[in-house]
Amino acid sequence: MTDHFPDGFLWGAATAAYQIEGAHNEDGRGESIWDRFSHTPGKVFEGHTGDRACDHYHRWQDDIKLMQELGLQAYRFSIAWARVLPQGHGKVNQKGLDFYSRLVDGLLDAGIVPYATLYHWDLPQALQDRGGWPARSTAEAFAEYADVASRHLGDRVASWATLNEPQVSADAGYLQGRHAPGHTSLAEMMATTHHLLLAHGLAVPVLRRNAPQAQVGIVLNLQPHVPASARAADVRAARVGDAMQNRRFLDPLAGRGYPDEVLAQYDGPRDFVQAGDMEMIAAPIDYLGVNHYFRTVHRSADTPDEEVTTPVGSHKTEMGWEVYPPGLEEILVRLHKDYSFPAYYVTENGAAFADTVSEDGQVHDPHRVEYLRNYLHHAQRAIDAGVPLKGYFAWSLMDNFEWAWGYSRRFGIVYVDYETQTRIIKDSGRLYTRIIKENRVISN
Ligand code: FCB
Q: Does 348 participate in catalysis according to the annotation?
């Protein structure tokens, strides 16, 4: 194993619009489902909202300086659909576009490569009012949005991702109700899955037309699903878990249709799949973005109820997610073996820990330091095993609004004091700077 990452390996950090921007009602921005959800009592931890968040909408220039200080080579951000098209389609809000245009120019001036994600969960509320993702018209509106965004930014954005983690949009948003819009319907979840994939498929040719030199891909949350034992019930539970989380999206993207295990979950009408959809969804992509945090170990009781467990004795983050660094290598190697997409990026990886500012004014986060090192070690092993992994984005550039957890979970390599909006680079951020500079995992 070589000591260094390949030449040209891209080091970045990631954020998402609703989690950092704030300015929820400025410059013509429309309402999104996350504004509505976070303002609904009981939905988000202690009633937190993204109204102000990290105030990045006003502090983006300082935040670019912070990225420079960290030595980032790339920045993955998302565009708020409702800033660009307040109603989700139709009338364009020029001021919204101008914000992203300034941001992209600022990044380029700073020598940082812009990686844009079109949809990181913040559907315009106006589209939700017309049926949301269970409605096919939302996929069509997404293609319109992709057109507007890429016509204005396509000449400068190096890489486009259509969607972030459609599995979470579909399941947390429309089945479990723990994310916006907070619905709990299996039928809606199934239609949402398909319409998200269709939205991606409709957007790919639009992005290629408007941004011929850019890379086009999609970001999925992917992880190993392993059985707790060799018992048939555990093995089956792990297979279903893998199908529901990973293959539900990977197989259609690879032109293989929906897995049987997914279709078996639902015996309602499937007329949301129309002729030609599956071909559209399988449009070739340039890269697959992999968000990876943890693996899932399945232990199935002898009853039909499946229990998902974290192995005894394992370390967990503040999210309760198991720290299991080999999982990153395992998922990357498996993806390449089973699907061989042309390239991969780790588009998110990171950990929440209860950080505090020490008396010396610094934020010492030894667990995140260890997490970063160990996961990167396994990213490197995946490269050595032949996976064309081209870059890594830490989640997150800075602490932010962690969805239903509000501000109670800190994932940043930079600490944010939400009262004063002061940013403090954590020890993990300082380590990351050295890793980037040396292009290798530094062990001390
Ligand atoms: C991912 C999301 C991201 C962040 C991290 C912790 O699922 O894409 O916005 O919430 O988890």
A: yes
